[in-house]
Design goal:
The chain is mainly alpha-helical and about 55 residues long. Helices cover about 45% and strands about 0% of the residues.
Length: about 55
């Protein structure tokens, strides 16, 4: 990868999608360990069922 002179890096200050937040990922694991299914978890956290399955 070649960087041009004057190139800069950008950082993400906030998450656009709630499912990418570290705290939500922790809650997904906690809810799974307590017996909540995918539909319950996605409904309560306001995220996609696919996101729950991938985490």
């Amino acid at each position: 990868m070649h960087l041009k002179v004057g190139a800069f890096k950008s950082f993400q200050r906030s998450f656009v999608y709630k499912g990418n937040q570290p705290s939500v990922q922790d809650r997904i694991v906690d809810m799974a360990m307590n017996g909540s299914d995918v539909r319950d978890t996605s409904r309560i956290l306001g995220i996609s069922q696919n996101t729950v399955i991938k985490r």
